[in-house]
Amino acid sequence: MAVAPLACGAMSGTVVQIGAGSEEGAQRADRPRPAQRALVLNVTYEPVSIVSQRRALVLVLSDKVEMLHGSGDVVRSARLHFDLPSVVRLRYHVRVPYRRRAPLTRRAVFARDGHRCVYCNRPAECIDHVQPRSRGGEHVWENVVAACRVCNLRKGDKDLSATPYRLARTPVAPPALSWVALAVSRVPEDWTPYLPGDVPIPA
Ligand SMILES: [Zn+2]
Questions:
Q1: Which of 26, 33, 50, 188 is the most exposed, having the fewest neighbouring CB atoms within 10 Å of its CB?
Q2: Cα gap 75→130, rounded to integer Å
């Protein structure tokens, strides 16, 4: 198996407590919730980043961004309450110097491959290197696929052509803006007007 960096195992998930930030007097919710994120748009409405909703609120309060959509979640202190942003827009233009490539993560690979094994189409459980790393295979989008445990084990460290396994689809890097959809487990409705139609939405 050539699965070192993203081997089979339990899916990891980020859980944070709303209200557990450093803001003095902020109210702590009594149940954990998934990390809430805010989409940051350039002045031209092009997505440039994703930050925590708390970070986005700080940007709003320091007048670096305007809030386009609130999340409906509220942070309260003794006297004030603030709507946590879901989408904010920078007040100045930032130059994005390169087409950002989607980060290669287990979740992103699963999303790209529809959570299905590329060899047998059963539910995916592992990340597999098509050309095993022991044979010089790189850890890049074009060589990393979602696979089930059985195919991953049986394929082992062999060259793909020496096995009965064939790729149902050629692995490619997702479109340039997919990093937005791949960074969150579910894309909030507020974000979709700012994303191109071909961005794959993780299940
Ligand atoms: Zn399989």
A1: 33
A2: 47
Distance 143 CA to ligand 1 centre (A): 16
The answer to the question of residue 146 being in a domain is: yes
Global pTM exceeds 0.70: no
Q: Does residue 118 lie within any of the structural domains?
A: yes
Higher model confidence: residue 30 or residue 63?
63
Instruction: Say whether both 93 and 115 belong to one domain.
Output: no
Task: Please report the pLDDT score of residue 192 as a whole number.
Answer: 84
User: Per the structure, how many domains does the chain have?
Assistant: 2
3-class secondary-structure state, position 48: strand
Ligand 1 centre to CA of 201 (Å) is 23
Q: For residue 38, what are the β-bridge partners?
A: 51
Any idea which residue has 């290669």 for tokens?
A: 104
**For range 167-172, the mean pLDDT:** 89
Ligand 1: centre distance to CA 19 (Å): 42
